[in-house]
Every structure is written in C-alpha cells, then in structure tokens.
Amino acid sequence: MALQNAVQKLRPVNEVNISISSRTDSGVHALCNSAHLDIQRKEGKPPFSAELLVEALNFHLKPEPISVIKAFRVADNFNARFRALSRTYVYRLVTGCWHRSQLPVFERNLCWPVCNIPLNTDIMKEAAQILLGTHDFSTFRSLNSETPFKSPLKTLLQVDIIPGFSISLQQDFHRRRKSPGPKREPSFNY
Q1: Catalytic-residue membership of 25
Q2: What number is the average pLDDT over the span 54-82?
Q3: Where does the chain have alpha helices with state H?
Q4: Which residues, other chains included, contact 10 with Cβ-Cβ below 8 Å and sequence gap of 6+?
Q5: Taking residues 21-45, what's their average pLDDT?
C-alpha cells in the first residue's frame, strides 16, 4: 500500500499496477524484494530515468520503513513475481513475552512473541530437516486464474534455526546465508 501511494504521488497518466516478487503473511518479511510497475508521464514529459524514479519514490515513501534501492527498464512482458529466481524469508520468534506490546517498538512488526517458555533449538533444527527438498503444496494453494500456470512443487534448499537476541540478526542474515540456488523458499530464523 505504501509503494502504491508513493507511485500515485508521481501523478502517472496510466493506472499503475505493482507486481511484487513475493507475498508474505503478517509478521513475515521477505528480504530484498523486487517489484515492477509500468508508469507513464504526461505527454511532453520524458520518461522517468532510473535514478529519478528511485529518488522520487523514496521521497514519497517517507516515513515508511521501505526504500527503493535500484530501478531499471525491463521487457514489456516482465513480471517480478513470476520471474523471481529465489526467495528468502525470515521468521523471527521472540521468547520471554506474551504479547507484541511487550516487544521493543522497533521489533513489533518484525517478529512473533511466544510464551515465556524457552524454545528447544535442537529439536527445531531436527524437525526443520523434514522441510528440506521438493514438496507438493497443492493442498495449500487457492484456486484462481493463475493456478493452472503455476507448479505446486516448491523446493526448500536451506533452513536455518539461529538463536539470537536482537534485530541485528535479521539485518546480518542476508549476508551470512549460503549462496542461492535456483529457487529458495522460506528460511526460519528466531
């Protein structure tokens, strides 16, 4: 919604649809998301340069915790969601509190609070191994116009269960993970 609002403030003459490379549930964050949009300016105005588009979108995204890092032109048939080579997700669990209101303000929308019982990371790591590999997720997908064109087979290449204590773990996570394979699904991190 924030990105859509920022795009509208650029006053495009066309209806702009934004396609994001991944969709997440509440409390789940995809790292380094990509998106695409087609934007047309008023007649007589040149198309946005990549640099100007990044600068303008970031100006209108303030104060949201979202920023556009880079922009470039792509083919007319490009779709960020369907062309993504991999996806990395971070699921953060915080022990020692019962409700998200007890979390530090900067952590509230970045993790899930769990009860005051310590988590057994050894058991979690063992259980996570079951998730590795290629699995058929047919029973978890909704039926819509895209269903016939998408494979229900997904491959999970890596699952990390990493005990940590602060938001810095999430910021450092992307730099420490193994090199990406052809397709990457959720990574777990608490």
Answers
A1: yes
A2: 88
A3: 2-8, 50-61, 80-83, 121-128, 168-176
A4: 39, 48, 56, 57, 60
A5: 75
Query: Rounded to whole angstroms, what are the CA distances from 72 to 41, 140, 165, 177?
Result: 16, 34, 37, 26
User: Coil, strand, or helix at residue 71?
Assistant: coil
Instruction: Give the CA distances from residue 14 to residues 11, 36, 74, in Å, rounded to whole numbers and listed in that order.
Output: 9, 15, 18
End-to-end CA distance of the chain: 27
**Predicted local distance difference test score (pLDDT) of residue 24:** 57
pTM exceeding 0.70:
no
From the list 25, 136, 160, 172, the catalytic residue is 25
**What percentage of residues in the chain have a pLDDT greater than 70?**
77
